[in-house]
Design goal:
Blueprint (H helix, E strand, L loop, with lengths): L2 E7 L4 H17 L3 E7 L6 H7 L6 H14 L20 H15 L7 E2 L5 E2 H14 L8 H11 L3 H10 L1 H15 L7 E4 L4 E4 L4 H13 L9
Length: 231
Amino acid sequence: MSLQISYVSDVLCIWAYVAEVRLDEVRKEFGDSVELEYRFIPIFGATHHRIAEGRKDRGGYAGFGEYVRKVAEDFPHVSVHGRVWNDVAPTTSSVAHEMLCAARVLVNEGVIDPARHDALGGRTLFEEATWQIRSAFFEHARDISDRDVLLDVLGQAGVPANAIDAKLKSGEAMAEMCRDIELRDEHKIEGSPTYYLDQGRQKLYGNVGYRVVSANLRELLEQPGQQASWC
């Protein structure tokens, strides 16, 4: 039996972009003994309100872009394009989240292969699609609030656009996205990124080092009988 880890993030969050490498390490170290579940929350659901207005005294979009690039300088495994948040400022992360929720439905239905692929560095197709959407914005300065951009990115990652469209049209993707927000509230998730373990009884929030993540996972795997009861 595998240990389920829920990983909650916003695709426009620089800290979640930086932390993707830690997810890769979790896959390498723990393999099939852990099951990664991905949930999305709208930290950047309305960027004009959050950044342009909310950070007006700190330079708005341009000032936030400078902050994001300074964060990335400490992490050589990622890069942030100079146009990010200066010239390219997505209006929302929620369009990307809805499409990724559509892809998650397709995984659950068996339309998208849930297996990990060596060619994708041990990621599943869904995980690779999520990474490619983050990279499209941060590394390549593409506007991932634009549906055409997102469909192009997903198509290049190997996700069938017609199947995504069907889930958007039916409302299933929106329902999944709303469920993610409900789970955020139920588990009192503070922000992005957050790992929640042991059915939400344990949370690791923010720029948590990999050794901390690994130690917590090992404890849960090695001592399952000592986990707290719901009762």
